[in-house]
């Protein structure tokens, strides 16, 4: 057989093999406490290497249903339209906006940092008429502020970030849903930086749409974005005159793919796009890990560690970026870089010496703060103590350029 001979020009590569890919990947263990992705729970991490199965398999369909139950439990909701998009939290963000916005819809966005600003810009891309209500970095909205803006703008959608991770601010959810019902608009809340860390209570707070990611407070691996839509949100969706612009996050298509609107014995009809079975395993296992501990215990653990960490950090002389204690996020803490010190250099010193990743801030306060995220598997005493020791060492270092 000469069919596959090298003389056959069509199977001869015209380019050299990339040098960088001629060895196996090597990584090292690092403590990820920057407030971005956390070190995953072992159970969620190990699930990635479980044997694969096809999505037409009954057992795969059962995994989808387990995940839906887990998301409902974590968000404290009974919403039927609950599932996970493929993609990170930004996919959830764009997806829920796309499903809820019809061109010309008035959307009121609470901007108190980087993420609110991003949402306002994405909403504009979907043709929304965006009204921004703003608070300076480090502060949040009160119900009276929100009600006044709802009266002024009469939006069809109110969007808030419950954890503005770029500033370390917590936006409480109590009363938001009531206000949205009163002013006849849909509430969309980003809980990326609060889920798993502090109570969300979607149904009790009458929130219409929520999304998050899997690599922060949940303690999983990035790549899926859980979402939940209330009956009110679905009713707005069903009245649409136009289709959502992004196919892969269209909630109608996804409801078929996740067997909400499709019988479980019709997997071939339900299929919309490939699912990552390994990421689904991993999310199932992280949710099972939360169920095993119990959501109240998970919230309690995060609050306890947060308190411990903050009091130890305050003793080091670190000053909070968010002035009011009640406005601070649980699990993501932001300190001002002490006068005369360099935030970027402290970050690299801790990374190099201790193999611990903290963050020197994001966009609005880059270089001016030190952000530490103790959530998911890292919400424990041992990790909190290691981070304090690293910070102490960096702050007391006699290295002149720190
Ligand atoms: C509040 C908030 N919303 C949305 C996102 C976007 O999520 P992802 O990075 O998973 O796309 C982040 C990420 O850090 C976030 O902190």
TrEMBL record:
Domain of life of the organism encoding this protein: Eukaryota
The UniProt record lists the keyword Glycoprotein: no
Membrane-spanning intervals of the chain: none
Reactions that this protein is recorded to catalyse: glyoxylate + L-alanine = glycine + pyruvate
SUPFAM superfamilies in UniProt: PLP-dependent transferases
Necessary cofactors: pyridoxal 5'-phosphate
Keywords of this entry: Pyridoxal phosphate
EC numbers for this chain: 2.6.1.44
UniProt domain Aminotransferase class V: residue ranges: 46-371
Pfam family for this entry, one: Aminotran_5
Family: Belongs to the class-V pyridoxal-phosphate-dependent aminotransferase family.
Identification of the protein by name: Alanine--glyoxylate aminotransferase
């Amino acid at each position: 057989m000469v069919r596959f001979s090298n003389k056959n020009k069509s199977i001869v590569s015209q380019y050299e093999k990339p040098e960088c890919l001629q060895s196996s990947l090597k990584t090292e263990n690092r403590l990820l406490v920057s407030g971005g992705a956390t070190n995953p729970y072992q159970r969620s991490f190990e699930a990635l290497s479980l044997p694969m199965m096809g999505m037409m398999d009954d057992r795969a369909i059962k995994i989808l249903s387990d995940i839906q139950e887990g998301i409902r439990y974590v968000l404290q909701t009974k919403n039927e339209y609950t599932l996970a998009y493929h993609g990170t939290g930004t996919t959830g963000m764009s997806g829920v906006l796309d499903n809820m916005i019809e061109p010309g819809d008035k959307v009121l966005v609470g901007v108190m940092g980087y993420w609110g600003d991003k949402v306002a810009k994405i909403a504009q891309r979907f043709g929304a008429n965006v009204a921004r209500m703003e608070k300076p970095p480090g502060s949040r909205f009160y119900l009276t502020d929100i009600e006044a803006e709802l009266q002024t703008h009469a939006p069809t959608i109110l969007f808030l970030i419950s954890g503005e991770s770029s500033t370390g601010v917590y936006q409480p959810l109590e009363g938001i849903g009531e206000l949205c019902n009163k002013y006849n608009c849909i509430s969309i809340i980003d809980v990326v930086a609060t889920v798993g860390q502090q109570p969300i209570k979607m149904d009790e707070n009458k929130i219409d749409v929520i999304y998050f990611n899997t690599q922060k407070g949940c303690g999983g691996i990035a790549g899926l974005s859980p979402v939940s839509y209330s009956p009110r949100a679905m009713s707005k969706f069903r009245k649409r005159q136009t289709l959502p612009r992004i196919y892969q996050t269209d909630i109608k298509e996804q409801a078929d793919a996740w067997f909400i609107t499709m019988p479980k014995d019709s997997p071939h009809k339900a299929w919309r796009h490939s699912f990552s079975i390994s990421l689904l395993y991993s999310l199932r296992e992280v949710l099972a890990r939360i169920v095993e501990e119990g959501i109240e215990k998970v919230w309690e653990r995060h609050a306890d560690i947060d308190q411990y960490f903050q009091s130890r950090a305050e003793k080091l002389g670190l000053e909070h970026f968010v002035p009011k204690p009640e406005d601070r996020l649980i699990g993501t803490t932001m300190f001002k870089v002490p006068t005369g010190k360099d935030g970027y250099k402290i970050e690299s010193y801790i990374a190099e010496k201790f193999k611990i990743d903290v963050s020197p801030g994001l966009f609005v306060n880059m270089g001016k703060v030190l952000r530490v995220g103790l959530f998911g598997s890292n919400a424990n005493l041992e990790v909190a103590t290691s981070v304090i020791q690293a910070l102490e060492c960096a702050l007391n270092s006699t290295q002149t350029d720190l």
